[in-house]
Write a structure and sequence with these properties.
With about 150 residues, the protein is mostly helical. The protein is built from 5 helices and no strands.
């Protein structure tokens, strides 16, 4: 019994250490979070200043900076007792996206069906092969029965 009582006080610092950034039970200090998040935005803006503007749409050029920004917003939200992500933090992150990535367009390839000359064989060949293989299995199984019976 004493060992269990001794372990509890030792677990408390460990839990506090592991959960140092956990939201507090007292609730989210939204005002504090809105005061702290711009620090993350400024740090991100300073880091993005090192990247040429024409490379801003290439995520591989600044992924480390963006990860740092994301971690910063999460840490600041947790410090003031807020969960992350939350609507206020998402709004802030969206404003940063508008500031830096508004000119980045996604060149989406429009997917279209292939022409009928290609599509029809791609449909018919597997259907015919499936029917042929099923017929071959049935024919082979009937033939084996005949061979085993001897008639």
């Amino acid at each position: 019994m004493e060992t269990g009582a001794r372990r509890r006080p030792q677990l408390l610092p460990l839990l506090l250490l592991l959960c140092g950034g956990c939201p507090r039970a007292g609730g989210c200090n939204e005002t504090g979070m809105l005061e702290r998040l711009p620090l993350c935005g400024k740090a991100f803006a300073d880091m993005m200043g090192k990247v040429d503007v024409w490379k801003w749409c290439n995520l591989s050029e600044f992924i480390v900076y963006y990860e740092s920004f994301t971690n910063c917003t999460e840490m600041e939200a947790n410090i003031v007792g807020c969960y992350w992500p939350n609507p206020l933090a998402q709004g802030f992150i969206t404003s940063i996206h508008r500031q830096f990535f508004s000119n980045c367009t996604m060149d989406r390839v429009r997917l279209e069906d292939p022409p009928d000359e290609i599509l029809i064989p791609l449909i018919i060949i597997p259907v015919v092969l499936t029917v042929a293989m099923a017929g071959l299995v049935v024919w082979r199984s009937k033939r084996t029965d005949t061979l085993l019976c001897g008639n």
